[in-house]
Structures are given as C-alpha cells and as structure tokens.
Design goal:
- It is a single chain.
- By secondary structure, the protein is of the alpha+beta class.
- It folds into 2 domains: about 5-140, Sandwich (Jelly Rolls), CATH 2.60.120.10; about 140-225, Arc Repressor Mutant, subunit A (Orthogonal Bundle), CATH 1.10.10.
- About 45% of the residues lie in helices and about 25% in strands.
- The chain contains 9 helices and 8 strands.
- The protein has helices at about 5-10, 15-25, 105-115, 115-140, 145-160, 170-175, 180-190, 205-215, 215-225, and strands at about 25-30, 35, 45-60, 65-70, 90-105, 165, 195-200, 200-205.
- The strands form 2 sheets. Strands 1, 2, 3, 4 and 5 form a 5-stranded antiparallel beta sheet that branches. A 3-stranded antiparallel beta sheet has the order 6-8-7.
- A hairpin with a 5-residue loop joins strand 3 (about 45-60) and strand 4.
- The radius of gyration is 17 Å and the shape is globular.
Length: about 230
C-alpha cells in the first residue's frame, strides 16, 4: 500500500484507505486561507499531506490565541463527525501545503460504516482535546521564549518542514503575545544559534538546542500524538 503522507490515512487498512481516497479531492492550501470559520458548520474535512493549520480562539474583548495545531498527523474537522455543531474556532492554514478534501456527509457515512476508521478518528479527537488543554495552560503559565520554541518545533513536526513562512504579527497572534515580545524572544533564540529569523521566514537551525529551550509542553504534546501511531 502506497503511503499518502498523512499519518492517520497511512495507518488504515488498504480497503478503508482506498474507500476514503476514492471520495477525496486533492487541494492546494495557501497560507492564511480559512478551512472552517467561527460559528459556521463545516462542510468538508481535510487530510493534510503537507503544511499545518491553526485552531484559533477569538475573545470578545479583542485578541486571539491558538489552542490547537493540526498537520499531517490527523484530520481537520473531525469534530463535525460527532454532530452538526457550528465551529467554535477559526481553522486557518498557517503553513502552506496541500491535502485531500472530502465532504462531511460522505465522511459521516464512512465513519459509521467502518469501525476501524471510527476508532482512529475518535482517538485523534481525544488526543486533540488533551493537547488543547495542555496548550491553554502553557499560554497562561510559561514564558514567551519557551512557548515560542515549543510552537516552532510543533509547527515543524506538523508541517514536515523546518523552514516556516511566518510573520511577527502571525506568531504573536498564535502565542497570544505582543509583536514586540515575539521580536524580542525570537532575537534571543537567533543569537543562541537555534533559529534563523528573517522577515516572514523562520528556519530551525539547531533542533536539539531549540528542544532544550522549549517548555515541557512540547515533549508532552508530541508524546500524545506519537502514541496514536505506535
């Protein structure tokens, strides 16, 4: 069975994987495109092959922060299979890539028909709940430098690239921090030789060192994801 590049799809048996692929359509995913919008009921589910998306919460008094990130390890919009509820987050492509898109109605039928698929999706959704809780605590309790290191490592894991097209403004939004704070801590990481930070681009140059600089949330959330596919 040929690998698709999506870890969840590649863990399925060949017959189930082929059934999904026969109903899916390849799509490009440019940066900053919304896949699902706040308060709207999702119409499609995405399996990313490259790139990463952020799940972003917006506060009524202004400001926003990322509470989840999904890439090649799972599916985007899996919560729509649990019921037709409006989205509580904005789901936006943070790192450009490509994926497979399938209508929610089609995926619902496959979800109910195939126990193997249902089990994989439910495991992934449970992992996302656990990761979201960890990230929420991280955003509240950990210093900006450690959070930025954690975020960059996670983005690289999810997207499959260590060269990340990101602006200061976008990083600040994801971390729930000020742009000046992001500029300051990115400068610290760059002077330490851990990243190469230029306008609109961050490249991880020393993964081991960046991992040491990250808070423990990186190891915890990575373990949650890796456990799905052991």
């Amino acid at each position: 069975m040929a690998a698709t590049g999506n870890r969840l799809l590649d863990k399925l048996s060949e017959p189930v994987q082929k059934t999904i692929l026969s109903s899916a359509r390849p799509v490009d995913l440019p940066a900053r495109v919304h896949l699902h919008r706040l308060h709207e009921v999702p119409t499609h589910i995405y399996f990313l092959l490259r790139g990463a998306v952020s799940l972003v919460v917006h506060m009524s008094e202004g400001g926003s922060a990322e509470v989840g990130m999904i890439g090649r390890e799972g599916l985007v919009g899996g919560d729509a299979l649990l019921g037709p509820a409006p989205s509580t987050v904005d789901t936006v492509v943070q790192i450009a890539g490509a994926g497979l898109r399938i209508p929610v109605k089609t995926m619902e039928s496959l979800f109910l028909e195939h126990e193997e698929l249902r089990g994989r999706v439910l495991e992934f959704q449970q992992a996302q709940i656990n990761i979201s809780g960890q990230i929420s605590a991280c955003n509240k309790l950990h210093e900006a430098e450690a959070r930025l290191a954690r975020w960059l490592l996670t983005a690289a894991d999810r997207s499959g690239t260590e060269a990340l097209g990101l602006t200061q403004e976008y990083l600040a939004q994801m971390l729930g921090s000020q742009r000046t704070t992001v500029a300051l801590v990115a400068g610290v990481l760059q002077r330490a030789g851990l990243i190469d930070y230029r306008r609109g681009m961050v490249k991880i140059t020393n993964r081991e060192g960046l991992t040491a600089a990250a808070c423990t949330c990186y190891a915890i959330t990575r373990q949650i994801t890796d456990r799905l596919y052991q």
